[in-house]
Amino acid sequence: MAETLVEASKLDKDVFTLTQAATIIEQEQIERGSYTDLTEVLRSVPGLEFKQVGGPGQYNYIKMRGFGSANVLVVVDGVSMNLPSTGDVANLLSQYDPSSISRIEILRGPQTVLYGSNATAGVISITTKRGTLEPKRSISVEAGSLGWKKAKASLQQAFDVADGKLSTSLYASHTDSDGLLKYEGTRDTTLQASADYRGKSIDAGIALTHNKNRFNYAQLKEVTTGPNGTPAYWGMQLPDPNSYNDRRTETASAYLEQRLTEQLSHRLELGWTQTQRTNADPNDGLLGYVTAPWDNFSLDYKNYFKQGEQVPFYDSGFAGTSNYKDQSKQLNYSLKYAGQGFKVLGGGEIYDASASQWGAYGSLQGKNKRKSLYANGEYQIGTAGPVLAAGVRHDKYDVWGSKTTGSVGINQRVGNATIYSNYATSYAAPTLSQLYNPTYGNTNLKPESGRTVELGIRQVLPGLGANWEASLWKGKVKDAILYDGSIANARTSSGYGLYANGDALETQGLELSGALRINAQWKLKANYTYTDSQTKKKGKDFARTVQVARHKGNIGLAYTDGPLNMDFSAFLTGKRYDWTGVDWIPGYVRFDVSARYAVSKQLNLFARIENLFDHTVQEGLGYKPMGIYGIVGAEYKF
Known about the structure:
By secondary structure, this protein is mainly beta. It contains five helices and 38 strands. The protein has a 22-stranded antiparallel barrel. It is globular and about 75 Å long.
C-alpha cells in the first residue's frame, strides 16, 4: 500500500499522501476474478453502487456516495468519456470489456481541480492494456449461462528503439450472448491498440480503442397509480422482437512528455472520443396479456380492468429510429516540478464538445467549448511533518460563463498510519441536451455547484499483514438541474415545461475497508459503506434519494496455492427506493465464486459463478432478476 502510486492524481502521489479516499484495482485482480462485466469489477469498491437491469450488456446506472451518474467522471487513457449530451456514460460500464484493462483507479471525493466538470462524487480512471518487457501472447475462449460465448486474443511486446524501449499491445474480443427473455441478447466487439516509448528524456505514447455493442431489450410497462388513485407500483416486461440499442465508441489519446531536468518536466496530451447511438422500437402491436393486480387497473390510462382480468399488453414503440452522436476533443498542456517533499503541477486545457440528435425524438445540434487553467500541488513540512495539498481551477465556457473551483487538504503521518482531511468545491456543467433541446432546452442554465468535506484515516500493520481505512464525508449540491413543468414555454404543446435550476442534494456517510493476510494461502478483504443521501425537489422538503442504499458491504476471501487461485465474495445491499420514491427495491445478499487453475505454463482454465445460491437479486422493479449465472473458459499462452 505504501508503495502504490496514484497516476490519476496527475502528480503520481503515493497513496499515503492522498487527502481523499482511493481504491486501486490492478490487472492481476481482474484476471483472477474472470469477470464478464466491468460493473462486477467495480461492485466491491466502497461508495459505489449500481442499478443494473436486464441481461448481459444492458441498462446500467452508477451512483457514488449518493451522487448520480452525471457526478461520476469516467476517464479512459486520460480522455473524459462522459457524454456531452447527457453528462454521464450511459451503459458503457456494462459493455466495457474488463479483459482490455490494465489498471483502474477510483478517486472518491471531488476531483474537479484535476478534471473539471462531472467529478463531484469522484473519478473512475481506466488504463487500457499496455505493452510489457517480456512478450505475452494469448488466446482465450469462454462459454456460459444464457448462451454466453466470448473469444479474445492479446499480444504484448517490447522493442529496443534508439536509447529507449518501445512497448506495444494489441487486443481484440468478441462476445455474443442471449438475454433473460426471448429476443433479448447482446453482441459486443472490442479492438484495442497501444504503443508507449520510454527514452532517456522523452516519453511518448498512443492508445486507440474501438467498441461496438448492440443489445436487444424487452418491453417494460410500469403503473404507479393503484386502487382509488393511491400511489402503488406494478411493472413487468414482455419479449419485444425488434427493439434494440446500438452503440459505437471510439477513443484515441496521445501524449509527449519531456524531462527538462531531474525535477522538471512538461507534457502535452491529446484526446478524442466519439459515441454514436441508435435506438429502435418499432410498434409490434400485441405482445401478450397480463393479469390485472387490482380493480380499475390500466396499462394505457384509457381502458380499465377488474382484478384478475386479462389485460392486453401492447408494444409502446415508435416509428423510425432515434439517433445520437457525441464527440469531444481535448488538448492539455502541463508543467510538473517534483523536488524534495514538494510537487506541483500547472497547466491549461481546451475541451471542445458537440452533440447532435435526429430521428423519432426530434433534432438537436449543440456545441460548447471550455478553456481551463489549473494548478495543483502538495508540500511536506520537514521530514515527518504534515503533507499540505491544494489546487485551484478556472473553467470558462462559451455558452454559460465561468466557474472557479478549489481544493485544500492535509495529511499527517503518525507511525504507520495517516490521518487526512480535505475540503473541495465542484460543479456539473449543463449538458448540451439541457441547453439545446429543441423543446425543453434553456441556454440560461447555470452549473450545479457542490462542496464536500472529508475526514479519514488509513493504516498499514506489517506485523499482522493487514491494512485498513475509514473515511467520513459530507457533500452538498445546489442549483441541480431539473425539468420544471410549471415554467411557461411556448415551444411545448401544453405551453409549460423547461429545464431549470432548482433541486438540491445532501449526502453524508462512512466508508470502512480493510485487508488481512491470514497465512500464505488465504487473504481476507472487506468493506462497508453507510450512505445517507437526501434530495430536495423544487417546492418540497428533503427526502431520501431514490435508488441509493443506506447499507452496502462486501466480504472477499482469496485463496492461492501453487497453480490454483480461488476467490469467494459476498455482497450485501440494503433496500432502497425505486425511482417513484414510494415503493422499495428489496435488499439482497449475493455470493460469487471464481477459480483459475494453471494446467501448465501455457494453459489456464477458469470459471466464475455469480449469485451462487440463486437468491432473488433485484436492482430495478419490473425487470426479471438475473438468477444464478456462470461461465467457464480456457486461455492458451504462446
